[in-house]
Amino acid sequence: MMDWIEISIQADGEVAEAVSALFNRLNSRPDGQGGAVTETTGFDPVGDDDAPQVIIRTYLSADDSETPAKQHKIEEGVWHLKRLHPLGELQVRRLAEQDWANAWKASYQPLRIGRRFLVIPAWMVHEVAPGPGDLPIILDPGMAFGTGLHPSTQLCLTAMEDLIRPGHRVLDAGCGSGILSIAAARLGAAVVDAFDIDPIAVRATQENVALNDLAVPVSAWVSAGPDENCTWSPIDQSRPSWDVILVNILPHVILNLLGRGLHNHLASDGHMILAGIIEEREPEVIAALAQHRLDLQGRSVSGDWVALVAGH
What we know:
Rossmann fold
């Protein structure tokens, strides 16, 4: 039996996914999946609490010679995040393997988002019965960025309810855990495509999609955005287009994707939903939309986070 070093920290929903992304990047698992796991507290059984606290954990082998260096990098990364947003104190403890296996699952509860979405942890699927109007999203929240806790993800999901119609073609740019791709399929999209620069995220999307009984497949691939590969430039030279393009990342990545022409793949009457935008960076994104001749058609806010809807 192996002992493990558990590193954990408590955060609110706004910064929890940033910590999760940090842990995934610095401590990916040997099978290629992310190394962060999340535990939510404060939810009732249907997740009505709108201000959850989250504990993000990652586990290092106590016997691995690389563990001290990884731990140092994690501590350094958390220190930098603390300068941007309040965080709890980093906790480090040693666990036996049997304690490690189930320690992080106990408090992660179903989470309701918007009018119909119900995010269900994969190990609770047999314990939770969605209602007639619910759109379930079965998720392993420990795989990659995108648990549904972050306000930007919630803003994006809420906007999707109003914009995605049955038969739409949807692109999830920077798919992370695949939560938005699964949601698009649940809303009746006929085609759901997804990409991410991180192979761990693409694998997480594929594995989370497999947990859900979706009516349409989700195609996910590794890419940094519009380029010369066959997905973006088919042999027949036609330009692929989507009715809704989802971009729930960070402002500098949004600007980069617009600069590379992601908006050129939007259908003539389509919409882009841009989230992950901290309010102070919003003017930059709006200016970029105008530069690329995209009209601002909607705006929603949660705390310091903004989601924008744009189109031709």
